[in-house]
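PROTEIN DESIGN WORKSHEET
SECTION A - STRUCTURE
LENGTH: 309
TOKENS:
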């Protein structure tokens, strides 16, 4: 197991280097001059030249890149001119809000998706199966921002049950978490349904039934465990998608997380914040993928990860 972890961590280092390099290039080829944005259009040439030199933007791109990598190793992404704070500190300050949103949405998606998929896959072709499949396709088709707006109109404005935006209480988390969770719920439900339906045709399921086990015991005790492996795979890989969806959801609901911070930083050419946030997000996704890999062997001992002895 330790050998597998070391191998995955080495791959993770390469992934983090690639993510850091990619965002370095993207923010510098994007249109717009951060110096002009910082100083305004009325700044003199002397002021522009002075700030450009102070930020190191007058140096060759390769020199900027190697200096940037050296700072990344120390997790030093510089200062945010817009927030007057260290970029990583600003990102870390917003991280708990995004973590709360992601954990809540993941919990909703996994619990609801597994339940719906288990019920539908236990009786494939039935009324419940068709209803779950149709609902899952619909949920995946609706744009996330549209779903968020509809939930605001229904539960915040019409029924006045929940706050429409902001943070500060558990009630503020419900609408953004549900909005972020619904497409993920559909993915988990469809995958669980297919996996359970296939598992229910296995000979050991018939053996379990012949022993007198109830259908509920067969589903929960035999079919569910052996159907979890592809679900764990999708959950681990989908965390990156959740981070991307969080950018939209946080802006719709004015949720003070990483998503809204990144959008503001991109629009204002705040290089330091964009690079720090992207690097942190890449690290989070890598950790989730590592956890998903390690869970395989726990769910099914027959599985041997590549490189494991």
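SECTION B - SEQUENCE
RESIDUE ASSIGNMENT:
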């Amino acid at each position: 197991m330790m050998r597998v972890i070391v191998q995955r961590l080495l791959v993770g280092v390469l992934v983090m280097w690639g993510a850091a390099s990619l965002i370095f290039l993207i923010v510098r080829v994007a249109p717009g001059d951060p110096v002009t944005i910082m100083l305004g259009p009325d700044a003199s040439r002397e002021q522009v030249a002075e700030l450009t030199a102070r930020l190191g933007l007058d140096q060759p791109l390769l020199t900027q890149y190697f200096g940037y990598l050296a700072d990344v190793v120390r997790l030093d992404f510089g200062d945010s001119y817009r927030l007057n704070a260290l970029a990583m500190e600003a990102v870390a300050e917003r991280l708990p809000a995004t973590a709360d949103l992601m954990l809540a949405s993941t919990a909703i998606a996994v619990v609801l998706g597994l339940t719906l998929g288990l019920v539908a896959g236990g009786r494939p072709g039935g009324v419940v199966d068709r209803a779950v499949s149709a609902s899952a396709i619909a949920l995946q088709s609706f744009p996330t921002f549209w779903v968020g707006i509809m939930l605001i109109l229904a539960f915040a404005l019409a029924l006045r049950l929940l706050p429409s935006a902001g943070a500060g209480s558990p009630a503020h988390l419900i609408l953004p978490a549900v909005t972020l969770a619904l497409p993920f719920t559909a993915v988990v439900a469809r995958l669980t349904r297919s996996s359970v339906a296939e598992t229910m045709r296995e000979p050991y399921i018939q053996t379990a039934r012949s022993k007198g086990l109830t259908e509920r015991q067969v589903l929960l005790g035999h079919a569910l465990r052996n159907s979890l492996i592809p679900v764990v795979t999708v959950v681990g890989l989908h965390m990156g998608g959740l981070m991307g969806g969080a950018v939209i959801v946080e802006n719709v609901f004015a949720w003070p997380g990483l998503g809204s911070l990144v959008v503001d930083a991109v629009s204002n050419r705040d290089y330091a914040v964009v690079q720090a946030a992207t690097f942190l997000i890449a690290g989070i996704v890598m950790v989730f993928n590592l956890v998903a890999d390690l869970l395989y062997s726990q769910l099914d001992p027959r599985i041997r990860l590549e490189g494991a002895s």
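SECTION C - NOTES
The CA atoms of residues 105 and 181 lie 5 Å apart.
Confidence is low (pLDDT under 50) at residues 305-309.
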